[in-house]
Amino acid sequence: MTEQNLNGDRKINKEVIEKFLNNFIKGEENKCWLWFGTLHEGYGRFMCNGEYYFAHRVSCLYYNNLIKSPLLALHIRECFNKNCVNPNHLYLGTQKENQEDRSIIYPESYNHCKGESNVTHKLTEQDIRDIRYKKKCLKHKLHQLAKEYNITESYIGLIVQGKAWKHIK
């Protein structure tokens, strides 16, 4: 197989394919082929020549020769086993499709509810009001607020700018 585009400018070659093929056992066509190499957030991942590769993306390219940026390699809803590399369980899709799939498969942890209605929230609506007040009126620094509320400085910035928690005035 010649070098091909995997992710924008990232290319795979024989060495990447060999490493990929040595980290799972090919099974039945309709069953999951489980990655037994390193996992990152549940997805198979490996390093070759100083670059990280997600195993399901390499699988999609190698077996189907289809990946073209900006499409993603997504798991079909009947599978969505993150460490599955069976190309029959993968398809090409957009980021929007990926988010829709995740909201269906993991509704309890990935929802579109705002604020305290979102099960993953760390802050309360009162915290948001306090953060904005402390920044605007008391002139607190972003790093101080981040430390106080145990969240990132960049997220504090989004709250203060009204880009996060938009529904709280």
Structure description:
The protein has about 170 residues and is α+β, with helices and mostly antiparallel strands. It contains six helices and seven strands. It has helices at about 15-20, 55-65, 95-105, 125-135, 140-150, 155-160, and strands at about 5, 10, 40, 45-50, 50-55, 70-75, 90-95. The strands form three sheets. A three-stranded antiparallel beta sheet has the order 3-4-5. It has a two-stranded antiparallel ribbon with strand order 1-2. A two-stranded antiparallel ribbon has the order 6-7. Helix 5 (about 140-150) crosses helix 6. It is elongated, with a radius of gyration of 21 Å. The termini are far apart.
Topology, pairings included?
Blueprint: E1 4-7, E2 10-12, H1 14-21, E3 39-40, E4 43-48, E5 51-54, H2 55-64, E6 72-75, E7 90-93, H3 95-105, H4 125-136, H5 142-149, H6 153-161
Antiparallel strand pairs: 1-2, 3-4, 4-5, 6-7
Helix pairs in contact: 5-6
Task: Give the number of domains.
Answer: 2
Average pLDDT value?
82
pLDDT < 50 stretches: 1-9
Beta strand %:
15-25%
The number of strands is 7
Largest sheet: 3 strands, antiparallel
User: How does the overall form come out from the CA principal axes?
Assistant: elongated
Q: Please give the share of residues in helix.
A: 25-40%
Which CATH architecture of the largest domain would you pick? Alpha-Beta Complex
Strand/helix succession = EEHEEEHEEHHHH
Instruction: List the strand order in the largest sheet.
Output: 3-4-5
Number of helices: 6
- The assigned structural class equals alpha+beta
CATH-defined topology of the largest domain: Homing Intron 3 (I-Ppo) Encoded Endonuclease, Chain A
CATH class of the largest domain: Alpha Beta
Taking the alpha carbons of the first and last residues, their distance comes to 57 Å
The gyration radius over C-alpha positions equals 21 Å
